Amino acid sequence: MTAERQSKQRERQGVVVSDKMDKTIVVEVTTVKPHPQYQKIVRRTTKLKAQDEQNEARAGDKVLVRECRPLSKSKSWRLIRILERAQ
After folding, report:
1. Neighbours of 27 (CB within 10 A)
2. Domains contained in the chain, number
């Protein structure tokens, strides 16, 4: 892949909340930013389904996922690496 193509793929860090499906994990991503008008810090969470080919991630792990082509109806992210293991 070229560097230009690589930069267009979004990457997100999050925590695995479910690993019960085969080759699929659910990653909860939290974004924190100020409200445009009131400047109060607003915390938003979203859940992404990601492809985990070797079934290596476990619930509670901090992971890095990258956007990819649609792999199924609701899955269009891939596990890149596990940043931190859960205790």
Report:
1. 25
2. 1
Tens digit of each residue's pLDDT (9 = 90 or more) over 28-72: 999 999 999 999 999 999 999 999 999 999 999 999 999 999 999
Longest pairwise C-alpha distance within the chain: 45
Of 54, 4, 1, 2, nearest to 25 (Cα)? 54
The mean pLDDT value for 5-27 works out to 91
pTM of the model as a whole: 0.86
DSSP 22: T
Is 2 within the bounds of a domain?
A: no
Integer distance in angstroms from the first to the last C-alpha of the chain? 36
Residue 1 lies in a domain: no
For residues 52 and 3, is the Cβ–Cβ distance under 8 A?
Answer: no
